[in-house]
Amino acid sequence: MTAALTADRAFGRGGLRVARLSFGAAAIGNLYAEVDDAEATDAVRAALDAGISYFDTAPHYGLGLSERRLGAALDEHASVVISTKVGRVLRPASGPAAPDSQGFAVAADVERVWDFSRDGVFRSIEDSLMRLGRDRIDVVYVHDPDEHFVEAMNGAFPALDELRSQGVISSYGAGMNQSEMLTRFVRETDMDTVLIAGRYTVLDRGAAQDLLPACVQRDVSVAVGGVFNSGISASADPQPGATYDYAPATLSALDRARRLAAVCRDHGTTLPHAAVHFPLRHPAVRTVLLGMRSEEEVRTDLDLLWTPPPEALWSDLDAAL
Predict the structure, then answer these.
(1) Does domain 9-320 have CATH number 3.20.20.70?
(2) pLDDT-based confidence at 2, cuts 50/70/90?
(3) Model confidence over 21-38: pLDDT tens digits?
(4) Which class for 258: exposed (0-12), middle (13-18), buried (19 or more C-beta within 10 A)?
(5) E strand or H helix at 65
(6) CB atoms within 10 A of CB 319
(7) CB neighbour class for 72 (10 Å; exposed up to 12, middle 13-18, buried from 19)
(8) What is the mean pLDDT of residues 164-192?
(9) Alpha-carbon distance 256 to 82, whole Å?
(10) What pTM, to 2 d.p., does this model score?
(11) Percent of the chain residues topping a pLDDT of 70
(12) Which of 42, 56, 107, 130 has the highest CB neighbour number within 10 Å of its CB?
């Protein structure tokens, strides 16, 4: 596979650049199903060969497995952008290892402990550097601080600001599945990147009302994840039983997805195709993160990216919501 993407989009204020499509590494942490080491390595290297330059991971993903696999697969590739997250510190499990209870097909020989303190941030980053086999991390997100606003504001963000000012990291921000608190962080801290999952999609435009205007105003770069809303928009013909936001889709959500899928068919395209391209139309959005667990999935995701949908599609989708 020859290089096909260009890292031509500024990401944050620290000189980083990314391509339109980026690699979400939760899947190679055995999200929902096991992936073997070779398959994970092949996925990362196929992405590199295609020109994908930004890889997002977290200690939460597979209890460190995603970081370890990503670090091993990237090896000497020093020119990529890597982001990881803080907020969950991994500590030895207090009892016998059991299957992980948070969606990853791994044995829980360590446990996640919420920690948004300065010391917790420093420890988490040090542990991530070891797992990744690197001497620096480009971007660090405060991960899912939904119930920890005060701790994040008083501990995590000042710590990350300190690390950025020292040149230890290039950029920092927060990664969440909601836009309201992210918008507060954008307005009340000096973060320069944001990862929003599931709230700026072809089905859910919520972040367009608060987060994205704030990011434009404050010069904050946005990465969008969860563009398929956990599965419902990954099919050209959504069916009963599809998942929406990690739960069975309601009849209302399924009806909305099927209306949009029909509009896509009328324009000679598909709902997954529209789902990938929709966020990239906003000026604040720099890249879309797609989960990739195999070389085949990398190829499938790239096929969705190459040709944009017809321009007339977008107004018709708006009318169908």
Answers:
(1) no
(2) very low
(3) 999 999 999 999 999 999
(4) middle
(5) helix 65-74
(6) 9
(7) middle
(8) 97
(9) 35
(10) 0.96
(11) 98
(12) 56
Give 169's DSSP letter.
Answer: -
**Residues whose CB falls within 8 Å of the CB of residue 189, separated by 6 or more in sequence, listed in order:** 153, 157, 161
Name the more confident of 298 and 3: 298
Residue 276: enclosing H or E segment and its boundaries?
helix 271-277
Q: Sign of dihedral through CA atoms 31, 243, 208, 149?
A: negative
Residues annotated as catalytic (active site), given as ranges: 61
CA distance 190 to 218: 9
Neighbours of 123 (CB within 10 A): 16
Distance CA 50, CA 296 (A): 13
- Within 13 Å, how many C-alpha atoms sit on residue 45's CB side? 11
Round to whole Å and give the CA distance between 57 and 29: 9
- Contacts with 95 (C-beta within 8 Å, 6 or more apart), sequence order: none
Which residue type, as a one-letter code, is found at position 27? A
Reference 305, options 284, 274, 261, 281; nearest CA is 274
> What is the distance between the alpha carbons of residues 282 and 199, in angstroms, rounded to a whole number?
13
Least confident range of 18-32, 91-105, 211-225: 91-105
Q: If we measure between CA atoms, which residue out of 119, 115, 97 comes closest to residue 106?
A: 97
d(CA 11, CA 20): 11
Q: Which two tokens stand for residue 149?
A: 């606003």
Kindly list the domain boundaries of the chain, sorted by start residue: 9-320
